[in-house]
Amino acid sequence: MSEFEPKIIAFVCNWCTYAGADLTGTSRIKYAQNVKIIRFPCTGRIDFMLLLKSFSEGADGIIVSGCHPNDCHYTSGNFHARRRWIMFRGLLDLLGIDVRRIQYSWVSAAEGSKWADVVNSTVATIRELGPYTDYAKVAGYLEKEAKL
Amino acid sequence: MKIGFYPGCSLTGSSREYNESLLAISKEAGVELCEITDWNCCGATAAHNLSKDLSLTLPARNLALAELDQMDELVVPCAACYNRLVMTQHELGENESLKKIVSEKLQMPLQNGIKILNVLQFLEKHIVPRLEQLVKNPLDFDVACYYGCLLVRPQRVMKADRFEDPMTMDVIMQKLGANPIDWPFKTECCGAGFSVSKPEIVGELSGKIVRNAVDRGARAIVVACPMCHSNLDMRRPAIETYLNMKVDIPVIYITQAIALAMGLTPRQAGIQRHFVPVNLPVNR
Amino acid sequence: MMDLIKRATELLESDAVKVVIGYGKGSSTDRTRAIFVTQVADCENLVFNSQCIHNLAVYLTKAEIKKLGKPAIVAPVPVLRSILQLAAENQLTENDLVILGVTPESQLIEFESFAGIETFLDTHRIKIDQKYQETIEKIRSMPVAERFAWWVKELEPCFKCYACRSACPLCYCTRCTVENNQPQWISVASHPLGNLEWHVMRAMHLAGRCTDCEACYNACPMGIPIHLLTKSMLQDVNENFGTYGPTLKKDNTLSSFKPDDKESFIR
Amino acid sequence: MSKIGVFICHCGENISATVDVARVAEAAGKLEGVAFSTDYKYMCSDPGQTIIKQMVKEKGLTGVVVAACSPRMHEPTFRKACSEAGLNPYMCEMANLREHCSWVHDKSEATTQKAIDLVRTLVEKVKLDKPLFPIKVPVTKTALVIGGGIAGIQSSLDIANAGHQVILVEKDPSIGGHMSQLSETFPTLDCSQCILTPRMVEVAQHPNITLMTYAELEKLEGSIGNFKATIRKKAKSIDEKLCTGCGVCATKCPTKKIPSEFNTGLGMRTAIYVPFPQAVPNKPVIDKENCSYYQKGKCKVCEKVCPTGAIRFDQEDELVELEVGAVVIATGFNVMQPSGFPEYGYGKYKDVITGLQFERLASASGPTLGEIRRPSDGKIPEKIVFIACAGSRDPAKGIPYCSKICCMYTAKHAMLYQHKVHSGKSYIFYMDIRAAGKNYEEFVRRAIVEDEVNYIRGRVSKIYEQNGKLIVKGVDTLLNAKNVEIEADMVVLASAAVANEGSEELAQKLHISYDAYKFFSEAHPKLKPVETNTAGIFLAGACQAPKDIPETVSQASGAAAKVAILFSQNELSRDPVIAVVNRSAPPLYSTCVGCFMCATACPYQAIEEELITNRKGEVIKKVARVNPGLCQGCGTCVAFCRSKSIDIQGYTNEQMYAEVMALLNNE
């Protein structure tokens, strides 16, 4: 079996991080294939249930990224998101859902190289942590169900 | 009050008077300095030209030892040592993996959180607050405070205020009753790098500094760095050759100035160890 | 509790309210239950004692009870907190109900306005029991995998009866996320994943709203310590945003923010 | 049953070089609901778009996924193509195979697999897309121009001459900006005032321009075509209608020793003042901080002497609300106060001054009436040193960028000095001479050759005073790096051009982004240099980056043109990507329970209360409703709604959910 390739899903806002990731591309900065982006209008739009669902669907890691504070295209979406993640993170941590598997970041439209860093360092972290078998085991009941 | 203390080689050799005066005034002020057990070379000047690892590991060991001794503050009077220790703390602070490597090399844990004080920061924090009671013989004359480079550069790390025109020493000297002159050579290069290899360059660079201090009527040059001191004091012949005139302005460590102001004997202040004789109007 | 009965009687007689939501004798001597007094004659059934832990506020938003007409509600501190939160969430207005507050010293104290409740509650702040804080600390100190296993096991008995939801005064949605199957946010079956998702969702939806009445826990037939989740959230709110307990201000923790909210985990 | 068409673009070789496009197309073809899939060299080219249109018609496609570059690049292109083929444009989505895949990964199986995943994800999204229709909004054909420097003046005049209304807001008592402070201008050495003042007057007299001086933007709400701006008109303490600008008040005002901003502190002004003789409007304001009446409660001399009784001490700041369709920001720049240069002794030595101060010394209308006299003792300096790059291109001073104008104006300064002080000697320390521009290099040559200015390539390490002279210690890097010391009488620092103070706050008021140095960011460095990333807000002049006058003027006209284009339509169509609160059959009407937490979360106050009544008109339910005119589509409310009653078109819960499922399930 070859090296473990983590499955990482990225939830990013359209105005800063998505554009930042575009800049990573136009600057031809290379990063790992493991991360795949889903585009949201704003970090404020990102529902915590989507993060939870990602784990049950087999994600080993998650990136959530948007505009720096004060730079939100919608002025305050990222502030709301920040509060949501503070609370959500505390809850997950209490429940023993490994918070190290979720990387939050602010990546502006000008930070193409930062995006590459965020991706690569997250991939590295998740490689170190290995596949998220704990959660997969729990989610495993889904397949059982399907088989019945 | 107990504070960690890293003397480094100079204070045990060429600039013992610095050490003596520092310990003397600390004692007066009731501040106890405890030397790091088994400290080693800070790697100044040589190491960082040879190997980056070495230049970080040497100071790092001292930091680690200080942590073992449970010090949360560390005074490093020698400006060169101070510079190396702070640079190391900074670089390791910036780079987790580098820190890991180094602490593995040391086979010691390294929090890297200790507060490193240079002599001026130390004086400001622990001596100055007590000065008022302790100053017996105000120094009533003009002095030129000379900072040199190591205490203020590189700015991004040292975060010295007004690194082109620092004031901390001037403020302390004022508190001793002296009148620090406003002069432009506070941070000009004394040529320390060439102290051994090309003394004539020291002659020129230090010469300009000394000359300007004299021209502006200073009775003494006050320093806080062994390198500065040896160049302005020990290299006086080279200076005089360059200026081609006799200059007898003494060069004293700020700690010595304080000692004198506190009314300690010149011997306690280590005055007698200088090349350029120190005779200042300190009434006692 | 004579004056409670007296006041209830007045209210019903004067037709100021149609129903008095209060506590009555339970199935055994050590229990009480909610009763809905509509007849003056039944007022004497009203009791109040230390066993009255049931959060009656939950009935204020239930359609069946609303049908009965304007209520008076017997409201010890936890109920008052819920009422205030419901008010902040536009679910109650002051002339919707008569509030027969009961102080911890079992004194009857009637509230004319929500603002009155707010000032009263300022002197009766939510405080999380030392013992709970310790439990939460203990859980947090476990290694992450162990913690996870612990919770999976704790939640294992849950069979999704939703008693926690029906008992919670703040779970008044007409359609709960769990009933939303487009998309199916929460796997409905009561297997570990479904249970986990359900309780995470519930806790998040109560973040900054929960008033720590423990109704959910008391209602749970399997005694699952789900209140630990909401309690720990309350602590988080307090530590991170300093807001604690219900207020009339429309500054619910998750629908408001401060530009300088502090966090340590966003790169 | 959806029929999706998938079109994979090679983008020349940009994608196909690292992604096996044929395989992606093949894989896409196998996806459920995909009716057609192909790959082509340039999807965005005309033939490329034709393929899409044909297939939409032939196969009766219900949705289209174009897997090519970033949607931020070509989404409009392909959506247009689809609508031309009769498919609702919002049924077309893009998978970003270039910026997010081929350009950031090497050729490999994993890269192709990722491409397939991205396509599959977007296919699932498109399946759930619903036809959307643009929201029509009317355009208010009035422009707000912020800043009355040359940039603002130019923009205002151009927009006004295009026949539209302009409101020009200037924070100072007069328009004119930095250009009005300059003496002569490079490379022609014609007098700045002479070319500027006519424009200022034109602004004042233009029927389409409303001028608001001594005023600042307080708040900006709304969006392109329909902004609502709140302007704070600071109290001038005079009745402008009555004031004739006779100036008696200023001559009689007893408080005379206030450093004049216009003369960069080299001259003095009174408390009631007109900043400079050619000011527009030429009517005074009272500077409350320095007026002895406002400070000590007595004086009122101006009131006594005013022939028309125009003084109004009780006047207060006034807030005016304006409806505008577009905004041009022309707030200009500032020169770095070189207090960050203890080594140059600025502030310590009177005769170390900034370039802008030198402009005032050289200006005929300046404190010395154009004679170069040093501030300390009014002597005419025989030796003068200019230091280019004082701060600029110096990361240690936090300014790594080039201020662009200094090379030219320093050359100009030296020239002016030589013209005025024939016996004088001038030296310029420089790093490089950057004289790119029409007739610029020639200009610098003239300074060197004709006016014998001494250019020294090297930097200055220290300046200090010694017996009345300024000793400038520097290095000449050309003559085998000799140290040089010049005993100068005066030193002029070409201090860096920096963003104006408060530009950060302004950017946040306007919701536009700014760079690391607080200069406002253009939407695209090459192709959208005057747009910001907020539609309807444009940039003119040095607020975007340091610029000289010709460049500023051309950008200002560019911004004006953009505004004119916007105003050429009566109606704008806005993206229908907005939130909606669901509605359902009675008795439920909506799953919304009316907790209105969405309302507290909404940044645009777009959430309103809707009362649902029965036939008898009794209110049975209060639910939330989104005002489509105000909603900008951030979706913050959606993530809040516990009962999932709000959703956002184009990014619905179902869609985002489907995307997650599709992205993660690639077996």
CATH architecture of chain A: 3-Layer(aba) Sandwich
Text of the CATH class of the largest domain in chain B: Alpha Beta
Distance between the termini of chain B: 29 Å
Q: Please bin the fraction of helical residues of chain A.
A: 40-55%
**What is the number of domains of chain A?**
1
Number of E-state strands of chain B: 8
Give me the CATH fold name of the largest domain in chain B: Rossmann fold
- The amount of helix of chain B comes to 40-55%
- Please give the order of strands in the largest beta sheet of chain A: 2-1-3-4
Biggest sheet record of chain B: 4 strands, parallel
| Form type of chain A | globular
CATH first level of chain A: Alpha Beta
Helix-strand pattern of chain B, N to C?
EHHEHHEHHEHEHHEHEHHEHH
Gross morphology of chain B is globular
Assign the CATH topology of chain A.
Rossmann fold
Radius of gyration based on Cα positions of chain B: 19 Å
SSE blueprint and pairings:
The complex is a heterotetramer of chains A (148), B (284), C (267) and D (667).
Chain A: E1 8-13, H1 17-26, E2 35-40, H2 48-56, E3 61-66, H3 77-95, E4 102-106, H4 112-129, H5 133-147
Parallel strand pairs in A: 1-2, 1-3, 3-4
Helix pairs in contact in A: 1-4
Chain B: E1 2-5, H1 8-12, H2 16-28, E2 32-35, H3 47-50, H4 52-68, E3 73-75, H5 79-94, H6 96-106, E4 115-117, H7 119-134, E5 142-145, H8 155-158, H9 168-175, E6 179-180, H10 199-215, E7 220-223, H11 226-234, H12 236-243, E8 251-253, H13 254-262, H14 266-269
Parallel strand pairs in B: 1-2, 1-3, 3-4, 5-6, 5-7, 7-8
Chain C: H1 2-13, E1 19-25, E2 32-37, H2 63-67, E3 71-76, H3 77-88, E4 98-102, E5 108-111, H4 114-122, H5 130-141, H6 144-155, H7 163-167, H8 192-206, H9 215-219, H10 227-241
Parallel strand pairs in C: 1-3, 3-4
Antiparallel strand pairs in C: 1-2, 4-5
Helix pairs in contact in C: 3-4, 6-8
